[in-house]
DNA sequence: TTTATTCAATTGACTAGTAAACTGATGTTA
DNA sequence: TAACATCAGTTTACTAGTCAATTGAATAAA
């Protein structure tokens, strides 16, 4: 018992950090009347629009059911539109959605960055980015 | 726009990695008829029992409402007990809960570790642990 | 031309979290 | 002793995700 390998300690710290940073982001984004999940979706659409629901789900590491629900919410608030072409729906931002994300993006990016900038120097951040790239890529191709 | 600072790229990779690793853990833990959230709670109780709900919530970075629900579920499945003393409830594992977590722990820890062990060497893991410790500590004391 | 197949998207039933309002024992004060 | 304050825990109403079953448009086959 007490299998406190270095790896499992890293896992725990990372899981708690992400959870905590999502709580903080949600609190921060209240001023834009948005959650961090909604911000994340709008930001991806902003980069890749027009994009299919399937592709969006994959970029967000979310199921097709999950993306469907989320887009229904965002559509109801007139932040995005779904245009059906053949049997695929293409997602784009509305003017309102584009204005919102362009407004929120710099501040939210700043906030996210502060979580790292406050405690890491430039070299450490490069190190961390390299390490994260390796483990994230590995996790995407891993199967049970 | 396109504020792709190094820090915000790290944030994105970390968020996606944690999400993906939770999906994989849930799939893995199906064999024990458990979710990764339940595993996490049982593992913390195993280390700290007897522990109050408040303390448990803090260790798991979860709200008091969240821990209340989760413990109700685990109690219904006879994995934990709550003993009221004064106005505080102390949580402990039942024999069934202890058996389950002791059974699942080595395999789950192994699985978690493989996410890092497969792509990082010992030095890189030490680096990553040091960096994660810094940023997690910072996130816990950060306020909006 | 009708039937079957495919596959993106949706829906139903679930877990897991949040904030905010409420409950209920235990102390404190008038 | 009766009213009030405190504070852990619970509950309500919500967001956000999962899997599995279903829907529906387009294409292929009989």
Any chance you could write out the topology, listing elements then pairs?
Two copies of one chain form a homodimer.
Chain A lengths: L5 H24 L6 H13 L2 E2 H7 L4 H13 L3 E6 L2 E6 L1 H23 L4 H20 L3
Antiparallel strand pairs in A: 1-3, 2-3
Helix pairs in contact in A: 1-5, 2-5, 3-4
Chain A binds a DNA duplex (30 and 30 nucleotides) through helix 1 and helix 4.
Descriptive account of the structure:
Two copies of one chain form a homodimer. With 144 residues, chain A is mainly alpha-helical. Chain A is 69% helix and 10% strand. In chain A, strands 1-3-2 form a three-stranded antiparallel β-sheet. The radius of gyration of chain A is 18 Å and the shape is globular. Chains A and B meet through helix 1, helix 5 and helix 6 of A and helix 1, helix 5 and helix 6 of B. The first copy, chain A, binds a DNA duplex (30 and 30 nucleotides) through helix 1 and helix 4.
Question: Could you provide a short overview of the structure?
Answer:
2 copies of one chain form a homodimer. Chain A is mainly alpha-helical and 144 residues long.
Which short descriptors sum up this protein?
homodimer, 144 residues, mainly alpha, three-stranded antiparallel sheet, 69% helix, DNA-binding
Q: Note the overall shape of chain A.
A: globular
How much strand content do the residues of chain A show? 5-15%
Q: Could you give the order of strands across the largest sheet of chain A?
A: 1-3-2
- Assign a percent range to the helix content of chain A: 55-70%
Would you tell me the structural class of the helices and strands of chain A?
mainly alpha
The largest chain-to-chain contact, stated as pair and per-chain residue counts, equals: A-B, 59 and 60 residues
The mean pLDDT of chain A is 91
How many helix segments of chain A? Answer: 6
């Amino acid at each position: 018992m007490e299998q406190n390998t270095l790896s499992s300690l890293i896992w725990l710290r990372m899981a708690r950090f992400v959870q905590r940073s999502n709580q903080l982001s949600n609190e921060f984004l209240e001023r834009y009347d948005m959650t961090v999940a909604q911000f994340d979706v709008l930001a991806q659409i902003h980069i890749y629009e027009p994009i299919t629901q399937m592709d969006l789900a994959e970029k967000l590491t979310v199921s097709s059911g999950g993306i469907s629900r989320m887009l229904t919410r965002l559509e109801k608030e007139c932040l995005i539109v779904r245009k059906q072409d053949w049997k695929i729906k293409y997602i784009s931002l509305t003017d309102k959605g584009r204005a919102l994300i362009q407004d929120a993006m710099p501040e939210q990016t700043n906030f996210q960055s502060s979580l790292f900038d406050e405690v890491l120097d430039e070299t450490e951040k490069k190190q961390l980015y390299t390490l994260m790239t390796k483990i994230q890529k590995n996790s995407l191709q891993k199967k049970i």
